[in-house]
Amino acid sequence: MAKEADRFSSAHEGDREPLFATRRRTGGLIAFRFFAASVFGCICCIWLYRVVEPLEKDENRTGFFRLIWLVMLILEIWFGLYWLVVQSLRWNPVWRSTFTDRLSRRYGDDLPRLDVFVCTADPVIEPPLMVVNTVLSVMALDYPPEKLAVYLSDDGGSQLTFYALAEAAEFAKTWVPFCKKFDVEPRSPGAYFSSKSNVLDSAAAAEVAELYREMATRIETATKLRRVPEEALFKYGEGFSQWDSDATQRNHATILQILIDGRKDNTIAIPTLVYLSREKRPEHHHHYKAGSMNALLRVSSKITCGRIILNLDCDMYANNSKSALEALCILLDEKEGKEIAFVQFPQFYDNLTRNDLYGSMMRVIADVEFNGLDGNGGPLYIGTGCFHRRDVICGRKYGEEEQSDEIVEAEKTKSLASCIYEKGSEWGKEMGVKYGCPVEDVITGLAIQCRGWKSAYLTPKKEAFLGVAPTNLHQMLVQQKRWSEGDFQILLSEYSPVWYAQGKISFGLILGYCCYCLWAPSSVPVLLYSLLTSLCLFKGIPLFPKVWSSWFIPFGYVTLAVNAYSLAEFLWCGGTLRGWWNEQRMWLYRRTSSFLFGFMDTILKKFGVSESAFVITAKVAEEEAAERYEKEVMEFGVESPMFLLLGTLGMLNLFCFAAAVMRLMMNSREAGGDVQKMGMQFVITGLLVVINWPLYEGMLLRKDKGKMPRTVTVKAFVLALSACTCIALS
Ligand SMILES: O=c1ccn([C@@H]2O[C@H](COP(=O)(O)OP(=O)(O)O[C@H]3O[C@H](CO)[C@@H](O)[C@H](O)[C@H]3O)[C@@H](O)[C@H]2O)c(=O)[nH]1
Ligand SMILES: [Mn+2]
């Protein structure tokens, strides 16, 4: 391998054309900076208002009122500073483009080995048919098959998944050559055959489609019956014999089976395919996905030892067969590419509806913010759709020599995936993917960047990978809780971007990390601000300047400018107006439930009270729920503390707004004054009510199974009503 590395770096000395280009924005950027400066100027005015205004003589201003005023000042300082931090993501964006033709000219098929790691963990919420579609899509990537290997890590230790993979191995012999011969896209057979428009109209295609359908039926039937057919147990006996009779998901020996060995069998041009289920024992922590990634790193090093590693979640199929070549344009570039440790593609989904009810796409993050991060040193590693250099993820520092990894085939390969292998080693610490954090990906990427490496972000026109977004509110909130909690833990950990990364990565990138690491704590100010605004409206206490006073200008300008900009940005990124509105709702819900719970759990964890776990996101929904998802009807359905909180806050807003409107109508003489004094509060609380409309519908009007459970509605109602009563009487 040492020689091979040499070959890649120096043999093409004469050929100096870069393999990728980096584009920066110029014109628009200056306009943006002016705009940002104007907003910041107004933010300063708001702070000034809070400081200066209470000094005015006003007999109504009691001690309690001053306290509220102080809280408002603190919250506005937080929002202002957070806004500043977020600008780092827009200050210096870059876009990368690649020259795959130059890559082909220079290297032909002489490319480094590529190992693809696909992780799955549960055959029920991650259906084996979906998993093998992902596997098949990467096996058919535009890449020399003898250089490509696909590893499936099954944390579910499921015979069903193994069975599906064994079936896929057979089907691959037809599918891979078919894709290459006819250059089909996308290369997930499920996605390809379900898209009516691009399926070839030929006998060959019809034959492959039939084969696929037969395989899919077999896999789905087995999954439904939760039983592998008898003849398959026999046919793939070597694999199935590795399951002990008492094996369970959490307690079993290592299962390792090379289903296709591309190293030996050169007659069929199909990539190597390996199934791995690492050993699990109840007394050993398995470290979730990070644990399986590290087991994969070790086991694959003894089988194919790809110099490049692509990591995919089991639902992210390859939608663009050129993605590996595109990533290599960056990693093999002789000049700038040398300092780049990993190439991240965005997470896109193929199950989104038009207006993206749950804001799953995170359009602006993918199309704006990550380019901003790239300009400051590189995007975060987000766990899927990411090409790594093996030796870097294993711990190599920037500037160190790449080590040669000899493939010595040993009988002991299996032991590399045992529970005790990592005891007393650096795995999970300085080597491989890090343990102990719910976002193992982000912290690992940060550590790599702190070792001197950069990363790059690639967004080809045709999305490289497509996954499955959560299709109900609860799942979405749970996923967001895990992310916010994990990112906040990073902020408090020894790898904190604020302390540890100081001097190791650029200041802009530190701020970039902070945007996400501060998600969890940002819940508290949003909660307080919205509560204070509506409760004070209810009590008739004005919190903002009068509508006609000049102090109102900065408030009005900041509110309008920030929201108009966010809307424009959303539309530029291809979103719809409705989609933006939905995203604003999710912005609020995430903060007042997911992030808040993530924040509290992190604090509790610091005191050793709770343990954070990795709750896997389901990738299937039952039929009726799926229909509601298609129609963009918000799905509640389950009892959850997060819903109770959202419901209570929603009701509280409604009561406060209703009470204030009633007061307006009853004494219409003072109405004008009331509106003037509290115009801004009316608007904010009113908007909160409007944005909560799907919530009220779910609580009060709907009858289907996806409505808010009755118990939650009643509890929320009682809680909100008692809160209002207490406040009214106080
Ligand atoms: O014990 C576990 C738990 C999960 N997984 C796999 O990890 C992947 C991601 O899990 P998912 O439930 O889909 O979580 P998401 O929130 O969608 O995942 C995002 O966020 C995670 C960190 O929170 C990253 O690990 C993922 O790569 C990233 O896509 C899936 O393929 C799982 O099968 C395992 O292999 N073992
Ligand atoms: Mn996922």
From TrEMBL:
Keywords: Cell wall biogenesis/degradation, Glycosyltransferase, Membrane, Transferase, Transmembrane, Transmembrane helix. Its main location: membrane. Signal peptide: none annotated. The chain crosses the membrane at residues 30-52, 64-85, 551-575, 642-666, 678-696. It comes from the Eukaryota. It is found in: Endomembrane system. It is a multi-pass membrane protein. Pfam families: Cellulose_synt. PANTHER family: X-BOX TRANSCRIPTION FACTOR-RELATED (PTHR13301). This is Cellulose synthase-like protein E1. The lineage of its organism: Eukaryota, Viridiplantae, Streptophyta, Embryophyta, Tracheophyta.
